[in-house]
Amino acid sequence: EDKVVQSPLSLVVHEGDTVTLNCSYEVTNFRSLLWYKQEKKAPTFLFMLTSSGIEKKSGRLSSILDKKELSSILNITATQTGDSAIYLCAAVPYGGSQGNLIFGKGTKLSVKP
Amino acid sequence: ETGVTQTPRHLVMGMTNKKSLKCEQHLGHNAMYWYKQSAKKPLELMFVYNFKEQTENNSVPSRFSPECPNSSHLFLHLHTLQPEDSALYLCASSQPRDRLSSDEQFFGPGTRLTVL
Q1: How far is the C-alpha of A49 from the C-alpha of B67, rounded, in Å?
Q2: Nearest to residue B92, comparing CAs of B36, B8, B54?
Q3: Residue A41 per-residue DSSP state
Q4: What is the pLDDT of residues A16-35, one digit of tens each?
Q5: CATH hierarchy code of domain A3-112
Q6: Which of residues B104 and A73 earns the better pLDDT score?
Q7: Which of A45, A72, A77, B62 keeps 20 to 30 A from B76, CA to CA?
Q8: Phi-psi label, residue B107: left if phi above 0, alpha if psi -120 to 50, beta otherwise
Q9: Given its phi and psi angles, is residue B100 left (phi above 0), alpha (psi -120 to 50 degrees) or beta?
Q10: Would you call B90 and A42 a contact, using CB atoms and an 8 Å cutoff?
Q11: Sign of the alpha-carbon torsion through A95, A49, B98, B107
Q12: Pairing of β B53-57 and β B31-37
């Protein structure tokens, strides 16, 4: 059965810290991996990763995929209170039906001032 | 505000009520989805519509009934729900899957449903 596991499930840090969130997947015919940030409402898209070893970066956030280890990390440097959210990871397999995103449970990040 | 809107944002209903959730997307997408998000569980895909045709029903109980009158609108009709159905119901949309960029789904803000 396809699954995605995120760790840690929750994390509390102080402003300015750097954090690393982990996502591992077991997916038949892996196609891509997506990261989302969910505050109180809609998950908002952060990154889509398809190639191993290529870092994607957006401001203080970056992410990389390791297909050999079947995992991805999301790094946030110089964290701010506005980074507090649940970070969701989803794996997308080839085949199957449209929209078959397999989500992890998420990592709840709390950034304290 | 995202390109996907959902109404109502909050809903409290009794087990004998009938209600409907509405989703509208302004992004020109042709695929729309309903997800259920419960506490401490991964997002669960419920239904998929592709060009107004339902292509996925992930063993969802019949008390949840989707309707997609056109590519921009999606409804979830609720009838005789159970307390365990209380959750955040998220709608999403995307482009059709034949393009790699279509893996990204755009989510609405969700409807927080409480069943008493």
Answers
A1: 32
A2: B36
A3: S
A4: 999 999 999 999 889 899 99
A5: 2.60.40.10
A6: A73
A7: A45
A8: beta
A9: alpha
A10: yes
A11: positive
A12: unpaired
Q: Do B56 and A97 touch (CB under 8 A)?
A: yes
CB contact under 8 A, B97 and A32: no
B-interface mutation test, from A30, A33, A41, most B Cβ less than 10 A away: A41
pLDDT score, position B35: 94
Rounded CA separation B102/B95 (Å)? 5
Residue whose pair of structure tokens reads 């929209």 in the numeric block: A99
Contact B12, B111 (CB under 8 A): no
pLDDT at residue B93 is higher than 60: yes
Q: Name the DSSP letter for residue B103.
A: G
Q: Where are the domains of chain A?
A: 3-112
d(CA B9, CA B25): 15
Optimal mutation site among B1, B4, B104, B106, interface A, most CBs of chain A within 10 A: B104
Rg (CA), chain A: 14
How many angstroms separate the CA atoms of B31 and B28, rounded? 9
> Any idea which residue has 């050999």 for tokens?
A68
B56·A50 Cβ contact <8 A: no
How is residue B84 annotated by DSSP?
Answer: G
- Say whether residue B40 is in contact with chain A using an 8 A CB cutoff: yes
